[in-house]
Amino acid sequence: MKGVDVSSNNGIVDWNAVKNAGYGNFAIIRLGYGDDYINQDDSQFSRNVQKCEELSIPYGVYLYSYALNINQAKSEANHALRQLKKVGKNFKYGVWFDMEDADNYKKNHGMPSNAILVDICYTFCNIIEKAGYYTGIYASKSWLVNQLNSSKLDRFDKWVAQWNNVCTYNKTYSIWQYTSSLYIGGKRFDANKLIKDFAHGGINPKPTKKSNEEIAQEVINGKWGNGDDRKRRLSAAGYDPSTIQNIVNQKLGVNKPTKKSNEQIANEVIKGLWGNGEIRKNKLRQAGYDPSTIQKIVNQKLKK
User: Fold this and answer.
1) Are residues 238 and 268 in the same domain?
2) Residue 183's beta-bridge partner residues?
């Protein structure tokens, strides 16, 4: 599925032309930029929303960030929420936080550290999510890899900008902006491909998350596919594929290590491989052995 993202920079968009060109599957519409000021609302936001709704083009929204600190990130979240009151929750493709520095504002006003950039993204998305909207982060692949590469942001979806014939971002993402040079009716647009089906996510509050045990059983039942496809789907749903696979292996009895005998463990204790005192006891218990039983065998061996 292909779509465009738009802002007032695109002027008055001919949405019929966009749809007829095959890019009306979805749209991401800018609602504004920066702090919560009316003069920083996108001047075409209401019109673009209205036209998409008239033409049944499903859409999401985004805010371009100028935040240099956490307080400004909070203000930007409030900006988004104020604008969202105009459309309610009658849209499908999420609320995105545009983190970049296209006009060098951040560079010229003191580029925040990577840690602060991560906290800015987290603050915005957390506020939007708590308000009941599906949310994620837009950034170039370079920014996602070099500035925003933190596990703190892994639970939020990604919209990746990589103007290329393939997206090489190696974490989970749902939208790929693959060019900034799509021309429709002489007007230039950014073009995107939809990677993830939002039929059960869009902007609604996230459903109650199933336990890893339940998901592992669903994997065994064949509901999550196989290989890389399964990993991608699990990650997109907020689960760690490795954790799920370990549970699956345990349930199926795959890769269970052969447990050493008490005799073998006692010999290892004598060789000093398990430490001494309480450290040894704790390590033995964690490995599934009874320290008293092992000690008796050790004593017997040392008396010979």
Assistant:
1) no
2) 188
Per DSSP bridges, beta strands 135-140 and 187-194 are unpaired
Q: Do the Cβ atoms of 68 and 34 come closer than 8 Å?
A: no
Domain-embedded: residue 200? no
Q: What is the DSSP string of 148-168?
A: S--GGGTTSEEEEE--SSS--
pLDDT in tens, 216-273: 998 888 888 888 878 888 887 788 988 999 898 888 876 656 678 999 999 999 999 9
Q: Answer positive or negative: Cα dihedral of 107, 77, 27, 195.
A: positive
Q: State the Cα–Cα distance between residues 235 and 270, nearest whole angstrom.
A: 45
Closest by CA to 182, choosing from 6, 52, 30, 59, is 6
Instruction: Mark whether 222 and 188 lie in a shared domain.
Output: no
Q: What is the pTM of this model?
A: 0.67
Q: Find out whether 48 and 13 touch, Cβ atoms under 8 Å.
A: yes
For residue 304, give the amino acid letter: K
- Beta bridge partners, 137, equal 97, 158
> Among candidates 138, 152, 48, which has minimal Cα distance to 102?
138
Write out the residue range of the structural domain in which residue 266 sits.
262-303
Coil, strand or helix at 5: strand
3-state class of 223 per DSSP?
Answer: coil
Tokens describing residue 21:
């060109």
Closest-CA residue to 61 (of 135, 163, 157): 135
Distance CA(104)–CA(55), nearest Å, equals 36
Whether residue 208 lies inside any domain: the answer is no
In which residue ranges of the chain is pLDDT below 50?
200-207
142: which 2 tokens? 């370079």
CA-CA distance, 169 to 193, in Å (whole number)?
14
**Residue that is written with structure tokens 């749902």 in the block:** 174
